[in-house]
Amino acid sequence: MLAGLIYALLAGLFGAVASSSAKLSLGASYLKELCETAVRQWTAEEDRLTPSVDTTACEWVHIPLRLVCGLLLFSSNAVMWTFFAKALRHSFSSAQATVTTTASNFISSAFLGYVIFGESHALLWWFGISLTLLGLFILYGSSLKDQHLDVKKTD
């Protein structure tokens, strides 16, 4: 039962990594802007007297970075499906695995969106995820009661 929970949480995390990788690989401007910012900071630390910064390397560097993010997308998606299949196998019900993976994906996506893209979510979004988590706790609580009843019936 605990293994199913861990696998479902990991599946949600890798699903969020896959979606963030897709956003990075398909959105060309973000990686280019990130490259230009890094070059500016690096040159500012190196030589504070040079007012102009040459960021022409970022015109082509973002292309291999996008390819790496595309590879990360496919690999993290494969890992996510592997963990989800294991979660289904080790969980008490498929609903537990599905809801846990979904909740983990939402929370991981919110965290990665904040860290990588600087996104913030509205109060309504947090209310919705709270309802999802409440439903998850109710689902796990009822399955634990069912397990205890099944054990008592077999005794």
UniProtKB/TrEMBL annotation:
InterPro entries: EmrE-like, TMEM42. Keywords: Membrane, Signal, Transmembrane, Transmembrane helix. The keyword Signal applies. Residues 1-19 form the signal peptide. The chain crosses the membrane at residues 63-85, 97-117, 123-143. PANTHER family: TRANSMEMBRANE PROTEIN 42 (PTHR31965). This is Transmembrane protein 42. It comes from Clarias magur. The lineage of its organism: Eukaryota, Metazoa, Chordata, Craniata, Vertebrata.
